[in-house]
Amino acid sequence: MERAVTPEASGRPEMTLQLTIDCADPQRLVPFWIEALRYVPDPPPEGHATWRAYWEAIGVPEDELGDGAGELPESIMDPKGLGPRVWFQKVPEPKTVKNRVHLDLKVGGGRAVPLALRRERVDGEVARLTALGATILYAMDEPNGMDYYAVVLQDPEGNEFCLV
Predict the structure, then answer these.
(1) Is 103 helix (H, G, I), strand (E, B) or coil?
(2) Taking all residues of the chain, what is their mean pLDDT, rounded to a whole number?
(3) Are 99 and 159 in contact (CB under 8 A)?
(4) Handedness of CA 37, 40, 44, 50 (dihedral sign)
(5) N or C, where is the chain less crowded by C-beta within 10 Å?
(6) In angstroms, rounded to a whole number, what is the distance separating the alpha carbons of residues 32 and 38?
(7) Measured on CA atoms in the order 45, 51, 54, 59, is the torsion positive or negative?
């Protein structure tokens, strides 16, 4: 009889995934990405009005928090519990180069869906997200029977992502 090996039994710690996006203004990106991902603000732990109150309660030094940190939502979560938590970390330096990691928002339905319908779905999301502050960089529309369509965009701070 085979037994399941727990992380503790294997000597490996349990792990969860959080996506961290460096940014100049979390309050500019949080509303955009809540809409883009259909997420919700990540509430502070029970018994705390804000994340800052929680961090102060567990002893995070004031000089590590910075002005306004944790007073308004800086992280978002999938209300269905399927996707990773996303934290928008305020950093002093601006984005200067192309992302080495980016998000693909798969809204087209995959290759089992006819290309014309995938294109319609992607273009619908492009319209929705540009109305929220995204900008279009370019479309990846492969001719010659490649059956591929995606649009590369930037969020309000210039972070690139794709709608596929």
Answers:
(1) strand
(2) 89
(3) yes
(4) positive
(5) N
(6) 10
(7) positive
Query: What does the alpha-carbon distance between residue 152 and residue 96 come to, in Å, rounded to a whole number?
Result: 18
- What tokens appear for 127 in the block? 């319209």
**How far apart are alpha carbons 152 and 138 in whole angstroms?**
5
Cite the beta strand spans of 35-134 per DSSP E: 40-41, 75-77, 85-90, 103-105
Is there a contact between 147 and 115 (Cβ–Cβ < 8 Å)? yes
Contact 104, 40 (CB under 8 A): no
Q: What one-character-per-residue DSSP string does 62-108 give?
A: HHHH-TTTTTS--EEE-TTS-SPEEEEEE-SSPP-S--SS-EEE--S
Tokens of 121: 């779905």
Helix (H) or strand (E) holding 142: strand 135-142
Tell me if 162 sits within 8 A of 107, measured CB to CB: no
Reference 36, options 157, 122, 110, 128; nearest CA is 128
- The pTM of this model reads 0.84
Dihedral over Cα of 42, 48, 50, 51: its sign:
negative
